Amino acid sequence: MGSVRLNQRSINSKSISGCEHRRKIMQILFRELIEKDELFLNDVLEKSFNFDSEVAFGKSIRLGPPGYDNGTLSKKIINSDSFTTLIIIADQEECGVLVYTIGTPNIVNYFCLDPVFIGKGIGSLAWRKLEQEKKGIWQLETPAFSLRNHFFYEKNGFKKIGEKTYESNAVSFIYRKIIKDV
User: What region holds the N-acetyltransferase domain (predicted)?
Assistant: First the structure.
């Protein structure tokens, strides 16, 4: 697992909570995933991929990368020396994972939130926090059917640069963002 060098600074956000219209300060932190987090990682991956496919195709459809729903993908992530894997923590609650590879370009391998945390600004805050520390060209793939993901990445400055078709006729969109030192 790669070394993570992120400052312990947090990003604060003023957000409106539901219909209560009160301001809340949200603190986003990262911590490096460790082996004992395997169940958490597997749970977040499975819930996140299932949520995306159910939104697109209905409750009975569950789609994701190979091994996302049986622990194989989690083991691959944990055992990889090329991945940096972070647990996303919002207001002291673990709510997601960010898995990336530093290279040319940097690759976002998996960026998943437990669905109960979606729509609260946590993903955008986590991405901005990473941007503060990790500059360069970032690239990712997301399923063509996941309109919510497309909106999220475009809202956060990514541009669609291509498509990729797999053997099963599944299509992914490729997004890229350049983050420059200011």
Answer: 28-180
Decide: 76 and 7 in contact? Cβ < 8 Å: no
User: Is the Cβ–Cβ distance between 90 and 26 less than 8 Å?
Assistant: yes
What phi-psi label fits residue 58: left (phi over 0), alpha (psi between -120 and 50 degrees) or beta? left
Count CB-CB contacts under 10 A for residue 177.
21
Domain 11-17+24-136 belongs to what topology? Answer: Aminopeptidase (3.40.630)
With 0.90 as the threshold, say if the pTM is over it.
Answer: no
Q: Which two tokens stand for residue 38?
A: 């395997």
Predicted confidence (pLDDT) per residue in 131-149, tens digit: 999 999 999 999 999 999 9
Q: Give the residue extent of every domain in the chain.
A: 11-17+24-136
Take residue 7 and report the two structure tokens written for it: 């400052």
